[in-house]
Amino acid sequence: MVSVINTVDTSHEDMIHDAQMDYYGTRLATCSSDRSVKIFDVKNGGQILVADLRGHEGPVWQVAWAHPMYGNLLASCSYDRKVIIWKEENGTWDKMYEYTGHDSSVNSVCWGPYDFGLILACGSSDGAISVLTCSGDGHWDIKKINNAHTIGCNAVSWAPAVVPGSLIEQPSGQKPNYIKRFVSGGCDNLVKLWKEEDGQWKEDQKLEAHSDWVRDVGWAPSIGLPTSTIASCSQDGRVFIWTCDDPSGNAWTAKLLHKFNDVVWHVSWSITGNILAVSGGDNKVTLWKESVDGQWACISDVNKGQGAASSITDNQQNEQ
Amino acid sequence: MAARWSSENVVVEFRDAQATAMSVDCLGQYAVLSGRRFLYVVNLETPSEAPRKISRQSKWDVGTVQWNPHRTEAHLFAASSNQRVDLYAWRNGFGEPHASLQGHTRVISDLDWSWFDPELLVTSSVDTYIYIWDTRDARKPTAALSAVAGASQVKWNKRNHYCLASSHDGDVRIWDKRKPNTAVEYVAAHLSKIHGLDWHPDNEYILATSSQDNSVRPFSNGLVTVMVPQLRRENSLLLWSTLELNSPVHAFVGHDDVVLEFQWRPQKEGSKDCQLVTWSRDQSLRIWRVDPQLQKLCCANDIVDELMEGMNLTGDTEKTLRAQDAEPPLSPGLTENSRDQFEGPGSGLTSGGRNDVSGLPQTLQQEFSLVNLQIRNVNVEMDAVNGSCFVSADCGANRVRLVVKFPAQYPNNAAPSFRFVPPTNISSSMKTKIQKILTDTSLQKVKRNQNCLEPCVRQLVSCLESDMEDGSNPYGLTNPVTPALPTFPRVTNTYGSYQDANIPFPRTSGARFCGTGSLVYFTRPMTMHRTVPTTEPTPRSLSALSAYHSGVLTPMKMRTESQSTLRLYSGSPTRTDKDQVSISSFYYKERKSRRWKGKREGSDYSNRPIKLAGKVIIQEISCLLPVHKALGETYVLNVNDIQDTCKKNGAAALAVGRRDLAKVWALASAATNLDLNPDPDPDAGTPWAKHPFGRQLLETLLEHYSQMSDVQSLAMLCSVFRGHTSPQEYTLYGHQQARPVIFTAHHSRYPSVTSCSLTSGSFSSTSDTAATPWNMVSCARETEHAPPWGESSPDDYRYANQIYTDPREREKEQHDMNKRLLDPSNAFQFDDFKKCYGEILHRWGLKEKRAEVLKFVSCPPEPHKGIEFGVYCCHCRSQARGTQCAVCKRFTFQCAICHVAVRGSSNFCLSCGHGGHTSHMMDWFRSQDVCPTGCGCHCLLQSTF
């Protein structure tokens, strides 16, 4: 049964722009126009404010938890052009690193798969994407892709470290030599795929289908199947599912999931990559699942504006 | 506080004028007042005479009126009316319209004549375009600057032919008219809408702005940023000096209502007096004399004469800086409307006055009683009743006496003001610097509602002390106007001016899958309604927000109120009662209008706090996922008894209601039956794996669960069958080398070039080519086309040097492959299933289960690399890796015993860091137990763990 297990009153003084739980699902980070980032302990249905992080000088757009292998790290990005990486040490949260290399609002942050080390991609309205890599001794190495999207970059999302289509020969018994890849979406209505080659980030693919700003992109987690999947959503109300079966990763095909009546702001994949959560300007959340014959169907409609979460799963539908 | 004395010498009332705008011509002879039905031209020499009228037929008020500032064209003036600009010529006491400029599609917000070219006029409009017109060709504008957002003000630079500035909400954009597509510079100037904008007359790089946030900011080299206290609801004009930015020099008191417009009147040569012409909503025109005494007050240094000279000669030293005050939140119908003026390099004017400090907040008294001011050379006298304190600091020869005034709202985002009083003896540049530091410090603190007295005083002292150490001549800089930099500083700390057209409109709702089985979502609260009907899409960028507001407000205002209020168009009601503009204004607005409605109905909506942040809801959605935590907990993997494992797992699946899985486990149990164990002899018959119910069945199952994304079942089946395949020679990674025979696997994804040269043997394809559709299609195809030896698994690549001479050996190996129920060519994929499932188990906190599954991964975890110790170079103390320092190129460490650089094996004490050649250390510690350097460290004891 789909059930609400917790309702967290964040007490933010202004509108919330992102909420995300950590790896284990025990802590919740939220960020808001009130310039703060808050962390709550949400174990067992409770809510304990762990930290109220102040450091941004503008609305905070997005937060991202790093893999716990690297400690308790949270990245946040803001209108103030800054990316702040927060770290918990001995129970207290502090600023670990502040990145100020962008000239405009930073709209998206995303940690790479843990196999790549501590690596963060940031997309900004100045059109650039920055990739920050922690070298281990507190020093951060910065690679900036300038003019990644003309006018501005709105979203970034890493590809899983499992790259089934790879043609690269990998001797067994050694750690596979994964290629670092991520996808980005921007104000040029494009979805772009980026690939690291010889330490340099190169544009790998340009996916065109949207007719307005791309607001979010999400690379689906892999469970080991050879198909790569990306979801993208846009101001034009469309959500596309991009798939690639080609081992060289060049042939991407788009499939329209749905055309919404208002902007679609966010897409999120479930851990097994078979359910997509879509949310947008209509203040609603819908869940989509691919049926066995490859058709996407809405399995749930969570209408938050009404305060009630009505969820229809397959089973419930039968009962009704 | 400013000295107040009335110095007006002319007051004329024009009761029926209802004029909304006024302008004084460049000769100082006429003033034009623009009413709805007539334009009145007042002769300033004889102001009490009845003014001449020019009738106009329009239902719109005049937005802005301006005389041409060029003496040759002094008879011309332009008046904007809705979307049109009318040009009038005034000759011999009669005026007539002679041209109309039409092009804007929305109301014109401002216009300005060029200072260089008498024919050029610039207009700004809500329609987001700024047009430059050549009045000789009125048909269309000669240039259009595209601003994306509507502009409220536009002004030509007075020194640069090409440069102009426009204001958009809280931002200022600087344009080069040759580059119409994009602004040259963006300045985030104010938190709220800018009402007034003006360039410095002599300096190309200085401009001043005034805003609804009650501050006036001159932007020059970034040195001066001043908050002006509350200006609302005062009917006086304030005269400011740019040298003394925290308090006005003079207040012109007399008008009974808001000052709508003011302008310096150019003087005839020889006149020492300066005159200011003001028009107020009390329908009176006043001419104020600014006598030399007052002028001197504005210009502390001896530049008065220069200034006066400049004014007399050029006649265009005056510049207008407009400020329209905000609508007070409680009286939405009433609009205060006032203008600011900025005079010369020495002084400026602001309309309005400051609110009296009323009612002292408890916090100030508390701060005074708690503050720790035991600072050297500083004495602070605090007067909590008057909300002020007197700071005296003596630092060497420098003496500073500072009066700090705390506003009533302090410390809730209201900074105190700082004023130097005699006998302060520091230079004016130093004063400016300290002023800025203090203002910045206090602003920083009060922004967080923190007290700021102590930090400010400490900043003052450290600033004075550092100045002494610098030894710089404090009297060296006498020029009050610091040299301007050629760029406009960005005020990076100022936000809230959401003009940026390329920043996406923020998400106010979102959903995210988190952990393994949770969906976290948030939406905007129910109380927040959109201002737009739901049929209209949400705007895409932040800048659209302000443009949208203007769109809603303009038509309504135009009908009901005087057009001059149109300059307020983008100020949404929320902005006046919130010091920060927020995205919530977009939604909040409707709530607000409901509040007004509610008031009429007698309910007090307004008293209820409005919640801007909704709740974050965490939903359990694991039932939608193909993986089950309960199964993760109960599944077992016992390689020694696969049969039992399958039975137990089947029971577990049944317990969670997965009947399909229960059957699968039953099948698995059957397939792994010991009776079906393959015979080691290749001649004993086809192994079970080659049976339709063998490998084929298993692959069909895997395909099915792949489609379901059921990584849990996939990983478990792969683990069980991998474990089953060769129970007797079951190997985990690491034991493989011990295997006598190496199988050849098809792994088309990893074609090996070297393997081609391996053998020439006629070796039949090992193809278990039941390449199944769920597997990579390309993989299967390649298998068919490629020569048998053209592909090999990474494993045999490793043993590629082995040449099989014995065909029986080969046959045996082939048989070995065929025995396997899991296609070895997909081993990597199976590993991915297990790793992915392992990750999910990790998130569930089932670390042991995870380890059990990961045991079956063919690719081992990365071996532990051990700990590397960093070394600091003994010569230059920089951090080094290895024996040679990258910085000084010398060897990084020396042996404590022989004092020779160590390059080979070394040992060090982890406690004191001393050490050296291993052999030396061993010799030493054979007989000693303290450090050979004599540091006293008991290295042998300290280094044991």
UniProtKB/TrEMBL annotation, chain A:
<dbReference type="GO" id="GO:0031080">
    <property type="term" value="C:nuclear pore outer ring"/>
</dbReference>
<dbReference type="Pfam" id="PF00400">
    <property type="entry name" value="WD40"/>
</dbReference>
<dbReference type="GO" id="GO:0032527">
    <property type="term" value="P:protein exit from endoplasmic reticulum"/>
</dbReference>
<dbReference type="GO" id="GO:0051028">
    <property type="term" value="P:mRNA transport"/>
</dbReference>
<keyword id="KW-0653">Protein transport</keyword>
<comment type="function">
    <text>As a component of the GATOR2 complex, functions as an activator of the amino acid-sensing branch of the mTORC1 signaling pathway. The GATOR2 complex indirectly activates mTORC1 through the inhibition of the GATOR1 subcomplex. GATOR2 probably acts as an E3 ubiquitin-protein ligase toward GATOR1. In the presence of abundant amino acids, the GATOR2 complex mediates ubiquitination of the NPRL2 core component of the GATOR1 complex, leading to GATOR1 inactivation. In the absence of amino acids, GATOR2 is inhibited, activating the GATOR1 complex.</text>
</comment>
<keyword id="KW-0813">Transport</keyword>
<keyword id="KW-0853">WD repeat</keyword>
<keyword id="KW-0509">mRNA transport</keyword>
<keyword id="KW-0906">Nuclear pore complex</keyword>
<feature type="repeat" description="WD">
    <location>
        <begin position="207"/>
        <end position="242"/>
    </location>
</feature>
<dbReference type="InterPro" id="IPR001680">
    <property type="entry name" value="WD40_rpt"/>
</dbReference>
<feature type="repeat" description="WD">
    <location>
        <begin position="9"/>
        <end position="50"/>
    </location>
</feature>
<dbReference type="InterPro" id="IPR037363">
    <property type="entry name" value="Sec13/Seh1_fam"/>
</dbReference>
<comment type="function">
    <text>Functions as a component of the nuclear pore complex (NPC) and the COPII coat. At the endoplasmic reticulum, SEC13 is involved in the biogenesis of COPII-coated vesicles. Required for the exit of adipsin (CFD/ADN), an adipocyte-secreted protein from the endoplasmic reticulum.</text>
</comment>
<feature type="repeat" description="WD">
    <location>
        <begin position="53"/>
        <end position="87"/>
    </location>
</feature>
<dbReference type="InterPro" id="IPR015943">
    <property type="entry name" value="WD40/YVTN_repeat-like_dom_sf"/>
</dbReference>
<dbReference type="GO" id="GO:0030127">
    <property type="term" value="C:COPII vesicle coat"/>
</dbReference>
<comment type="subunit">
    <text>At the nuclear pore: component of the Y-shaped Nup107-160 subcomplex of the nuclear pore complex (NPC). The Nup107-160 subcomplex includes NUP160, NUP133, NUP107, NUP98, NUP85, NUP43, NUP37, SEH1 and SEC13. At the COPII coat complex: interacts with SEC31A and SEC31B. Interacts with SEC16A. Interacts with SEC16B. Component of the GATOR2 subcomplex, composed of MIOS, SEC13, SEH1L, WDR24 and WDR59. The GATOR2 complex interacts with CASTOR1 and CASTOR2; the interaction is negatively regulated by arginine.</text>
</comment>
<dbReference type="InterPro" id="IPR036322">
    <property type="entry name" value="WD40_repeat_dom_sf"/>
</dbReference>
<comment type="similarity">
    <text>Belongs to the WD repeat SEC13 family.</text>
</comment>
<dbReference type="GO" id="GO:0005198">
    <property type="term" value="F:structural molecule activity"/>
</dbReference>
TrEMBL record, chain B:
<comment type="similarity">
    <text>Belongs to the WD repeat WDR59 family.</text>
</comment>
<dbReference type="Pfam" id="PF00400">
    <property type="entry name" value="WD40"/>
</dbReference>
<dbReference type="GO" id="GO:0005774">
    <property type="term" value="C:vacuolar membrane"/>
</dbReference>
<feature type="region of interest" description="Disordered">
    <location>
        <begin position="321"/>
        <end position="358"/>
    </location>
</feature>
<dbReference type="InterPro" id="IPR019775">
    <property type="entry name" value="WD40_repeat_CS"/>
</dbReference>
<feature type="repeat" description="WD">
    <location>
        <begin position="101"/>
        <end position="143"/>
    </location>
</feature>
<dbReference type="InterPro" id="IPR001680">
    <property type="entry name" value="WD40_rpt"/>
</dbReference>
<dbReference type="InterPro" id="IPR039456">
    <property type="entry name" value="WDR59_mRING-H2-C3H3C2"/>
</dbReference>
<feature type="repeat" description="WD">
    <location>
        <begin position="154"/>
        <end position="185"/>
    </location>
</feature>
<dbReference type="InterPro" id="IPR049567">
    <property type="entry name" value="WDR59-like"/>
</dbReference>
<dbReference type="InterPro" id="IPR049566">
    <property type="entry name" value="WDR59_RTC1-like_RING_Znf"/>
</dbReference>
<dbReference type="InterPro" id="IPR015943">
    <property type="entry name" value="WD40/YVTN_repeat-like_dom_sf"/>
</dbReference>
<feature type="domain" description="RWD">
    <location>
        <begin position="366"/>
        <end position="467"/>
    </location>
</feature>
<dbReference type="GO" id="GO:0035591">
    <property type="term" value="F:signaling adaptor activity"/>
</dbReference>
<dbReference type="InterPro" id="IPR016135">
    <property type="entry name" value="UBQ-conjugating_enzyme/RWD"/>
</dbReference>
<dbReference type="GO" id="GO:0035859">
    <property type="term" value="C:Seh1-associated complex"/>
</dbReference>
<keyword id="KW-0677">Repeat</keyword>
<dbReference type="GO" id="GO:1904263">
    <property type="term" value="P:positive regulation of TORC1 signaling"/>
</dbReference>
<keyword id="KW-0853">WD repeat</keyword>
<protein>
    <submittedName>
        <fullName>GATOR complex protein WDR59</fullName>
    </submittedName>
</protein>
<dbReference type="InterPro" id="IPR006575">
    <property type="entry name" value="RWD_dom"/>
</dbReference>
<dbReference type="GO" id="GO:0034198">
    <property type="term" value="P:cellular response to amino acid starvation"/>
</dbReference>
